[in-house]
């Protein structure tokens, strides 16, 4: 059995560090999984990051991983052998229900989703499934089915949504990385609000099977992690297509990109969001954080110029696809009466906006790609705020009507959803903190089709200067957090 004395040094370590330590025999998978499960149990009453925890199964899988590590099986074929990770509760894990934030008695799944299958084939140990709001509809993670998931940086605030449980788990060091999903910013928003790196990859980069596509093609799976290299490693392991996928992009090497210089790039700084039928105002601190990142990129030799994409009426194509996806998922729940009233409104909207309206919305995607993509004739990357405001307070969307909820979340998070319509890659990186309350803020890097390597290389270069991974939220006692530096 390997010496586990190095576990203290690996407390809160990242995915890459844990892979190296396991391969070197400095720690066992069982020790890492035990530590992850202990931290989950310790923080669950406060953070409430997990919907399901696979304690017994994860420990048995860790023991099996240790046997494979002892036999020398770690390496390129098993790049995550023995490492604990979490997945959002919108993907299937064999033997566990997939409730997707809903109340009710969901049956256990008989097989892993393709993304989970790939992670496990790479050797990862799935310790549990993380909380998400009902059908991933809101940029907060709370609901009657599981309560409130809290932000490790300030437990009075949300970690964001809809991958808020995954973000809280990574930000608090419960797991080194987690798989989330992004249908309107649901990876990038919680990444921004919990000081993480979050990647929404090209549509189809990570399979959505057993769904041929998710939410009419607007939702993608992707990683949340504390470093660019960790996010790239998880993305690389999860990537790949199933024969039944509708979208099957050519492969890219995300991991190699994390170690490669991006070269000198032309970057468009954009502070104006796409038009939406809600009042929008960019918080001065969120704007200043993005401008500071722009200045940092300029100091690294990139040419940064203020320029706005030509979004047009892209929002009109998003709503039919989103509501149609909600309607489809709402039809699967065991007890529809338990659904949030706002979910029922959105599901009815999916009926009204289905059929011909949905077909028109989907047909508009290619013209929109040409219109918005014109900016990439002159620029390599677009830089925007990830969100318009710092993290919302817990309960800020509770008890609102459907229209008030939509207006509030559009105003808070107007920068991410257009890239879900286009299907192109985007990622959020930490951009600093507010002066009062030390709440995390994020900046968003956006690219054209298949541009994950460029975005990852640029983010890694920025990370080497910013060193955001050195800052941690230190949980003290209920209701309080302090900021710690590694």
Automatic annotation (TrEMBL):
Keyword Phosphoprotein: no
GO molecular function: amidase activity
Keyword set, alphabetical order: Hydrolase
InterPro entries membership: Amidase (IPR000120), Amidase_CS (IPR020556), Amidase_dom (IPR023631), AS_sf (IPR036928)
One Pfam assignment: Amidase
NCBIfam families (UniProt xref): PRK06061.1 (NF004717)
Family, similarity comment: Belongs to the amidase family.
Name listed for the protein in its UniProt record: Amidase
